[in-house]
Amino acid sequence: MTERHVHQLLDLKGKTALITGGSRGLGLQMARALGEAGARVLISSRKADDLEEATAELQAAGIDTRWTAADCLKEDDIRRLASDALERLGRVDILVNNAGAAWGAPAEDHPLDAWDKVMNLNVRSYFLLSQLIAKLSMIPHKGGSIINTASIAGLGGNPPEMKTIAYNTSKGAVINFTRALAAEWGHYGIRVNAICPGFFPSKMTQGTLKALGEDKLAAHAPLRRLGDGEDLKGITLLYASDAGKHITGQWLAVDGGVSIITGG
Question: Which domains does the chain possess?
Fold first, then answer.
């Protein structure tokens, strides 16, 4: 085998990617990373208006982008999303499971329906969409990369003022889901890895950041900063490309070093 230049290993030209929760925040950042490396991308979320805006932004940057609205809490929507992705992309080489939800409530008073919503979106939807994309595309084509968005919240407990028992539990589940799926599907040539972000400003985290204080959270990190609009690009591209072709079943915290202090 002829060794390839690192630029060739990172090149995603000719590849396709499906990103859930891709219309804003971390999902949009990951979609941009994959598209900038040459992949054709399909982004999905619940709201068509958000998707149209994000698609226009990506297309203006020269990225071949399309969108499909789907609610990943609904099984029928997930099945339609998988079918749409295959119809519009031809195949799916890279799947980014990023759609997610959080809920804040003391554990003793946490509503059961809120628990179910968080677990169903953050874990169940990852399983079902991975299963469908694998059966319809990755297994027949003998390869692919699945990237799951977990969180440093899945590595341990939170500060007492952060009452997010369902979210923490779901993200811990995503990490072990990643390991188990990687072990089972490795013989198909499918790699499965997870990213564990720390605090990034986003619509989901704005309440937490306001309550805990952005400056305080940044000061707690060894790098003295929160995540920004570029910080997930490198790990996303590594997991998705041939530069990471021998990496599977792994998770990496992208958190400015917070987890080395908290023991994650």
Answer: 6-258 (3.40.50.720)
Active-site residue, selected from the candidate residues 126, 167, 188, 239: 167
pLDDT, residue 264, reads 58
Q: Does the pTM exceed 0.85?
A: yes
Tell me how far apart the alpha carbons of residues 23 and 157 are, in angstroms, rounded to a whole number: 29
**pLDDT at residue 205 is higher than 80:** no
Note if 167 is an active site residue.
yes
Whether 98 has a pLDDT exceeding 90, the answer reads yes
Condensed to tens digits (0 to 9), the pLDDT of residues 100-138 reads 999 999 999 999 999 999 999 999 999 999 999 999 999
Radius of gyration of the chain (CA): 18
Nearest CA among 46, 25, 29 for reference residue 204:
25
> What is the per-residue pLDDT across 38-49, written as a single tens digit (0 to 9) for each?
999 999 999 999
DSSP β-bridge partners for residue 20: 44
What mean pLDDT is reported for the chain?
94
